[in-house]
Amino acid sequence: MSVSTAMVSEKATAGVATSQSQRGSVSVNSLTKMFGPVKAVDDVSLSIEPGEFVALLGSSGSGKSTLLMMIAGFEVSSSGDIMLDGVRINDVPSHRRGFGMVFQSYALFPHMTIAENIAYPLRRRGLRGGDVEREVTKALKLVALDGYGARLPSQLSGGQQQRVALARALVFRPPLLLMDEPLGALDRKLRQQLQMEIKLIHKEVGSTIIFVTHDQEEALSMADRVAVLERGRLQQCGTPRELYEQPATAFVADFIGEMNFLPVELRRSGGEVCARSADVGLEVIQEASQVLTSGDRGLLAVRPEYIGLTPDERATATVLESAYTGTNQSVLVQVGSIRLTARTSVSPGRPLFQSGQRVRIEIEAAHTRVFPGAR
Amino acid sequence: MVPILLLLPIVILFSVGYVVPLAQLVLKSLQHDGAWSLNSYIEIANSPAFLWIVLRTIALAATVTIVCLLIAYPLAYAISKCSPRAASLLLLIVTLPYLTSVLIRTYAWIVLLSPNGPINQLFLRLGLISEPLQMVFNSVGVYVGMVQVQLPLMVFPLYAVLARVDPSLAKAAQSLGSPPTDAFLRVTLPASIPGVISGCTLVFLSSLGFYITPELLGGPDSYLIAQGISLRVLILGNFDEAAAQSSILMFAVIAVFLIFRQRIAEELDDRPHNNISLVGKSTSGLSARWPILVRLTAVLHGPSTRLHEALTVARRPALYVSAGLTLLFLVLPFVVVIPLAFSDAPYLTFPPPAYSLRWFSSLLKNTQWLDALSFSLRWAGLSALLSVAIGVPAAFALVRYRFSARVPVYLLLISPLIVPHVVIAVSLFFALAGSSLIGNPLAFALSYTIIGAPYTVVVMIAGLKRFNRTLELAAASLGSSPLVTLRTVTLPLLLPTLASAALFAFIVGFDDVVFGLFLSGPTATPLPMRMWDNIRLEISPQIAVIAVLFLIVLALLMLLRLFVGAVVQGRRPQESLHR
């Protein structure tokens, strides 16, 4: 979050004069892609600052890859604009857009050596001889693969191949790097290692990165800002913390992290909304935001860590099941007709919650959010 | 616009050398003495001899199809159960006859089946028979020869579907209580029905218009429609009736082709081949169409379970014995031909009394054979290059672009694989008659290209569909324009496919006899025509020498192809094959 604000202020002070380091701003305005009658991407607007690392997060069919493919020029948009550094690029063919791209399947040219692969974009730009060799060596060093230049892609492991793909996409210093689920084909451990490496490389080269993933953990841990898409619509774009703490929609609230939803009755008075849950016997008063203008039913969202449990033989809530995870205990509780998950920290000496135990529930109103709709 | 440009060369060539002559042939059949008339058809309809020929042709094609299916299925099934390495080797053995001249194989069958040939000798020695069986120059010879010639056409589509059937489906059925044979009947067999249909269609259609094998192996009692047509053109000069019979044969073949075209045009289908949906569709179709079948299996359940259990024990040996015998049947002709080439005898006898290289030196001294060889190499080679030049852009257009005429154009371009060569050759003969092109090498270049280009189109379409297009996107993202991508990424990676395409087109032209019969002249005699005359007039070990040389060249080409493939594919990471 802090990184992104720093970038913004830097740009503001630099003014209109665009220097080398500040190329790579991307904005899409009301971008829509139709596949027949289906809107794969539906009126998405998004503005990305130079040097920012933005993740496009969504499940399959959310439109995140289609959005990336339109920015790359591999898909033609149905309407809307794509701007790169203030220039509309909708009609510019891919190979003249000047971005680098990393694919999930690595897409290394199997008939060329690693060095030839990395030299490929340099040769397309007219570089010859010693210049090429120097840049290739530097790029291999950047991804910690010095000395692998003479090998063929098939002789490298998946993680190494993806690092070569990264080197190839960065060697010509593109202001913008697109990554389409680049770590999707790797196992968990390698994925975490490469996540770190990509963040370090991002700091070093300073290119803008747009990173598509379906893995929320990956998106939250890597990106400055995360854009959550669902069924082609942009649900919210914000820092990981904003998404977690102030989800804009019930979808985002549900998608990012764990969330409990309680059905509530809504009553409005003046500029405030009162949400009341009969099951839990809870009342939350919130400022009436735009989404809560109508309807008398809503959902109250609360994260497991903000649900407090106290053993109480006279309480109405019952522990159904619990799971001990070391520092925490996750507890599934039945209250009336609903089930809630609570996460309590485990302290030495204090007993764990047991199935069948009666508990009292406390929810911190400050950490709840109310959304329209019903389950 | 782009697909039109890519398709233009092949469409122009096919129009001039294929569609227009065939159209003229049909028009000719509808004329008599320069006026419109159905006279030729009326005469044919009134001729009981022709009807008998038609019936005999259909009966032969149907029998060959059924026999091929019965012996190809166990082979294809056994291959589909092999490890990938063994499977590709076995498929190569199946391909070998397909790539070898039909003339050579037919010649080998004459040797094998003749009254003093090895098969009769073996039977006599075993005491199975007391005097030699007459197995050649009658319908027995035709059946044996035809089945061997057509077998690969049945094995390939069967193998293609059987290899796609998920083996865990049959295991799942077994784990749910089906005995293995029952699991086969309920899961694997229904899933392979599409392959059975396309294999049977291919073999049946190709048998309908077959010429060489019946002509050389058959006797007067096994006279077929293609022979009737060529007899009318070459000997009797009855052009009107020949045109009418050709039209009937062509339309019959096209009709069957169009009925089953969904199976054949599947190559262009964009849906990914999904094992489960394939199986699901076929099984539900089977039960819905034949409810009686389901009831029958229910009634037979008790006894059939015992039968299945018996089969469970016997099925593996039975499968391997059957597959082994079929493979032996496929390669038997080559086994015979090789020793024959080194025969010392001045005439054909098997086994040769002594060995020498006399027939090799006799070939090298004979300028007629050498001229014919160089003629065939030159013009089949030129046609192969031309086929690639026009077939490859066409394949790109058909795979990479969507346009309304896509499927019709595809069907047109592959139709020379289906329309009997006798019909195409007769139509070209009529179209070129009177011009200086009869007996001109250019006529061969044209006709070889028309029968060769469909192979390049089919091979390239398969190659392009397997091609990982992400590589092209990657090239574009790295700043490469489409043409540079084609030069630096797409074509280098498709090199093995291009080599296969060229090889197929070359062999199709190099092996041709039918066009040779109609288009040869004193200055233009291809090698197969010399072989044809030799087999019909004197039948000497000379053909065996050519066969051996042919096999050596084929083996070298295949090694080269494997080498090119290894160079490119060995470098291909597994991941890039599955996007």
UniProtKB/TrEMBL annotation, chain A:
Gene Ontology cellular component terms for the protein in this record: ATP-binding cassette (ABC) transporter complex
Keyword annotations: ATP-binding, Nucleotide-binding, Transport
Keyword presence, Magnesium: no
Entry-linked InterPro entries: AAA+_ATPase, ABC_SmlMolc_Importer, ABC_transporter-like_ATP-bd, ABC_transporter-like_CS, Mo/tungstate-bd_C_term_dom, NA-bd_OB-fold, P-loop_NTPase, Transp-assoc_OB_typ2
Classification via Gene3D superfamilies: 2.40.50.100, Nucleic acid-binding proteins (2.40.50.140), P-loop containing nucleotide triphosphate hydrolases (3.40.50.300)
Every ABC transporter domain range: 26-256
Single GO term (MF): transmembrane transporter activity
GO biological process: putrescine transport
Role: Involved in beta-(1-->2)glucan export. Transmembrane domains (TMD) form a pore in the inner membrane and the ATP-binding domain (NBD) is responsible for energy generation.
Family, similarity comment: Belongs to the ABC transporter superfamily.
This protein's name: Polyamine ABC transporter ATP-binding protein
Record organism: Bradyrhizobium forestalis
